[in-house]
Write a structure and sequence with these properties.
The structure holds 2 protein chains of 2 kinds. By secondary structure, chain A is mainly alpha-helical. Chain A has one domain (3-359). Helices cover 79% and strands 0% of the residues of chain A. Chain A has helices spanning 3-36, 42-56, 62-69, 79-98, 105-121, 128-161, 166-206, 218-234, 237-246, 252-272, 278-293, 300-330, 336-359. The longest helix of chain A is centred in the middle third of the chain and has 41 residues, at 166-206. Classes of the chains: A mainly alpha, B mainly alpha.
């Protein structure tokens, strides 16, 4: 195995590790509403989401194409840059998981890759228009649309079923949540697994193993789908708790409205190739469904923390990505830099998990 | 400024995304609410012995459930068609 192939192998392993943390971190997006309204028991909800995440990854490749070609200049990218970008994204995912904050894995990934590219090739390596048009503007629009859709949907819903007996209505919406939650999991797999595919394609192109503009090879699709599904199955219970109970106290109708609004926005965006944050969309849908019932029903302090995490995601992941690139370059252009950074990253991750376990992380009921 | 924004953002795709998202997000909840409403009334009317009303509400519930299922299938087709 040549040194270039060794670096590529490290990059692919890191990308799949990121995909795992993406699933782990974003499980909450898909299952929190179903669990908090008791539409499904936690372990079944997580298994169901994992299976549909896996299936969703095979459905479309539009988002993968955007990540691979519209954010950074492909001719400047090296496998080491991709590696450093992934380190930035994984670090931010773990930091926000540690504090139980539902931030965007997608923006962490894009931020990390942009930061590392900027550190390596300066401003010319970054496609500013692509980031603005394909990432930032859709990122601002999508949660607002989900908020409005969730809010209007719950108002209409209460108008239609408000005078009926609560028992059958609640049971009906819980049943509906099995379907809307499934669609959401499918949409999540479609949108999020593709981002990892896009990054692996970027590394393969940079290594000369794949033509620029190619679709992801089958082994990339299967491995990305498996990693996100495994991460989802492992479940990020801390964030599930924040999204399921700390933003609003949800009833089944609100859960259904939030999931319906979220799935609609993610599906439409995936179709048009916008790599948006599923976390932001679902949070927007939940806040909308809460505010539609009563504005004071939303715990705006928690919502504010979540929005702050959204704003910080891109710059923080970019800063860590740039720093990781700087550290790898201290050891030259070979495989030693990525190996050293991987070792440091694994050590810090083990430390964070051990600390969380000692403090008593929430576990499923 | 709007010209610059227009050249950076695919405004048509973004507007379509917003339009379809609102339509689907609100529409699906509305249809499913109608289905639950129809079913709840069907049970209530059936218990009260008002068969014609029960049949009408049952039909409404069935129609709305079918429309909901169609919307889900359409969503999956939209995903797979890209």
């Amino acid at each position: 195995m040549s040194e270039a192939d060794l670096i590529l192998a490290i990059v692919v392993a890191t990308a799949l590790a990121f995909d795992f943390t993406n699933g782990f971190h974003d499980t909450a997006n898909v299952v929190a509403t179903s669990i908090s309204t008791r539409a499904m028991p936690p372990r079944i909800a997580v298994t169901y989401a994992a299976v549909l995440n896996f299936a969703g990854a095979f459905i479309s490749l539009a988002v993968a194409a955007t990540v691979a070609s519209d954010v950074v200049e492909a001719n400047v990218i090296t496998p080491t840059i991709v590696f450093a970008g992934l380190v930035g994204a994984i670090t931010w995912n773990l930091v926000t998981w540690y504090f139980g904050l539902p931030s965007s894995s997608s923006h962490a990934l894009i931020g990390g890759v942009v930061g590392a590219s900027f550190a390596a090739g300066g401003a010319d390596a970054v496609i500013g228009d692509g980031i603005l048009g394909k990432v930032l503007i859709p990122a601002l629009v999508a949660p607002v649309v989900a908020f409005i859709a969730g809010g209007v949907a719950i108002l209409i819903c209460y108008r239609v079923v408000g005078r009926e007996r609560p028992g059958p209505v609640t049971r009906g919406f819980r049943l509906g949540q099995v379907v809307s939650g499934g669609l959401l999991a499918l949409a999540h797999g479609t949108n999020d697994a593709q981002k990892t595919m896009g990054v692996i394609v970027l590394a393969l192109v940079a290594n000369g193993s794949l033509e620029a503009g190619s679709d992801p090879p089958t082994w990339v699709i299967v491995s990305a789908a498996s990693a996100i599904a495994l991460g989802t199955y492992s479940g990020g219970w801390r964030i599930i708790k924040t999204m399921g109970t700390r933003i609003i106290k949800m009833d089944a109708a609100q859960g259904f409205s939030a999931q319906g609004a979220g799935a609609a926005v993610i599906l439409a965006s995936s179709h048009f190739g916008f790599p948006l944050s599923t976390t932001q969309v679902i949070s927007g849908g939940i806040m909308g469904a809460g505010a539609g019932k009563r504005v004071s029903a939303v715990r705006w302090g928690v919502a504010g923390n979540i929005v702050a995490a959204w704003v910080l995601t891109l710059p923080c992941a970019a800063a860590v990505g740039a720093m990781a690139y700087g550290i790898t370059r201290i050891f030259g252009t070979g495989a030693v830099g990525p190996i050293v950074v991987s070792a440091i990253g694994l050590g810090l991750t083990a430390f964070a998990f051990a600390r969380r376990i000692r403090q008593g992380a929430p576990v499923p009921a | 400024m709007s010209l610059l924004a227009g050249s950076i953002v695919d405004s048509k795709a973004l507007l379509q995304t917003v339009g379809y998202s609102l339509l689907a997000g609100i529409g699906v909840t509305f249809i499913f609410s109608i289905a639950i409403f129809g079913f709840a009334r069907f049970v209530e009317m059936g218990r009260a012995g008002r068969s014609p009303s029960a049949v009408a509400f049952g039909g409404l519930a069935l129609f709305a459930f079918a429309a909901f299922a169609a919307a889900i299938v359409l969503g999956i087709i939209v995903m797979t068609s890209k």
